[in-house]
Amino acid sequence: MKKIKYTSPELSEKAQKIITADKKVLFGASTRTREIPLVVDYAQGARVTDIDGKTYLDFGAGFGVVNTGHCHPDVIKAVYEQIERLIHISGSDFYYDSQIALAEKLIAITPGSFPKKVYFGNSGAEAVEATLKIARHFTRRPRMISFIGAFHGRTFAGMTMSGSKKIQRAHFSSLIPEVYHIPFPYCYRCIFNETYPHCIKKDIDSIPLIHCLSYLTDVIFERLIDPDDVSLILVEPIQGEGGYITPPKEFLPALRKIADKFDIVLAFDEIQCGLGRTGKWFACDHVSTTPDIILLAKAIASGFPISATVGKAELMDQEVDARAWRPGSHGSTFGGNPVICAAGVVSLRIIEKELMKNTAEVGSFIKQRLIEMMKKHTIIGEVRGLGLMIGIELVRDKKTKEYFPNEITENGKNIKEVITGECFKRGLIIYGAGISSLRILPPLVITKDDAEQALKIIDEVITYVERQLL
Ligand SMILES: Cc1ncc(COP(=O)(O)O)c(C=O)c1O
């Protein structure tokens, strides 16, 4: 295949100096995979300005964290007010109002009208750790189900439950035993060679069963493991790092049925797809399916680190059910930090009052425009997603869905690096996802004009790449 000519974005002397200093002291700096050598000075709303004064439109939102936009004034105000009163005392052991207020709000907005409890940690991976412990403690069952393509973080529980890229797990064995990964409904590239909706050939208690899930019920649960040994099914309602993959609407309701039938705890990892990102509070709201536990992090506090594991009270409180974990079973020094909780309460208010409608509207505008763009471009295989969580799958050949070779430039870059790098040169921050996809993941504050600007750059870059492939 023809190689693409590509040069990495140029760096000023000032930027180069900082990157060199960073490389000297920071872990993994010499192995960073992104083609975006961005040295940030400050950021506001959907714009990021580098140390040379160049401003970029941000379509990455710090990996889906700054949903309210960079440095929202109301978040800053709430943080200042809290900092003057109390910075830290340890939320696992003491009492204060901002932690309670955030927990109450999360309980109110998460699906399910049953009593719930909240555990605050500091990162998405910590919510995953907590979820595994809750499910195992409650059920006393050793086995767990996860999905190919999943990403749940970098701790041992996160790594074990993930199935996205082998580099994330290589040379870290042994992982947590007894986790079975099953295919996620990635219908564009069905590994069973089935076609949705024709892959639905049966049902579970009148809920249609897509083929991937009949593989769970008929193969995994019949031949490999007894579902009575399974504590947890953990799933992303929309896969994020795995490639922005939106499953068919039958997927989550059928998983719910399976979990109910075998008394398995069902947990939705909405760390990337939750909190307004899809135009509703949660991705699972689009199919009216309620998990037993929902995992949240990233966007809770607009950039301050916090995660929340929100689950049925019976799973998380000994006073409600004797099988639940006990005082001392789990905890965290920093979890539920007062300042971060204050930022969280305000962030959720902003999303609810100002951003949910905008997300749905601008999101469907972008998706529609990308679908139109797909018709004229040879390397866009599929456009998928909800709200402002949209994936663009890049293919070498639309008919065969062939992937690009891993190295398509003379200097060994892959297609995602070329496109994100070229967008960056033109003033747009955008990330890749999965093997061969781009992700649209802007702060939820973006306007239609911002969207037009980004779409113009994406269109221009894809045209530029395609011309070289002719
Ligand atoms: C769906 C999902 N779960 C878990 C994580 C891990 O979160 P953290 O990096 O905060 O540990 C991520 C991070 O990208 C994620 O996207």
Please outline the helices and strands.
Layout: H1 13-25, E1 40-44, E2 47-50, E3 55-58, H2 61-64, H3 73-85, H4 97-109, E4 116-121, H5 124-139, E5 143-147, H6 156-161, E6 179-182, E7 202-204, E8 207-209, H7 211-224, E9 230-235, H8 251-261, E10 265-269, E11 293-296, E12 307-312, H9 313-316, H10 338-376, E13 380-386, E14 389-394, H11 415-425, E15 428-429, E16 431-433, E17 437-440, H12 448-469
Kindly describe this structure.
With 470 residues, this protein is an alpha/beta fold. The protein folds into two domains: 13-71 and 355-469, Aspartate Aminotransferase, domain 1 (Alpha-Beta Complex), CATH 3.90.1150.10; 88-336, Aspartate Aminotransferase, domain 2, CATH 3.40.640. The protein is 35% helix and 16% strand. The strands form four sheets. A seven-stranded mixed sheet has the order 4-12-11-10-9-5-6, sandwiched between helices. A four-stranded mixed sheet has the order 1-2-3-15. A hairpin with a 2-residue loop joins strand 13 and strand 14 (389-394). Helix 3 (73-85) packs antiparallel against helix 10. The longest helix is centred in the last third of the chain and has 39 residues, at 338-376. It is globular. The structure holds pyridoxal-5'-phosphate. This is Acetyl ornithine aminotransferase family protein. InterPro entries: Aminotrans_3, Aminotrans_3_PPA_site, Class-III_PLP-dep_AT, PyrdxlP-dep_Trfase, PyrdxlP-dep_Trfase_major, PyrdxlP-dep_Trfase_small. Keywords: Aminotransferase, Pyridoxal phosphate, Transferase. GO terms for molecular function: identical protein binding; pyridoxal phosphate binding; transaminase activity. Belongs to the class-III pyridoxal-phosphate-dependent aminotransferase family.
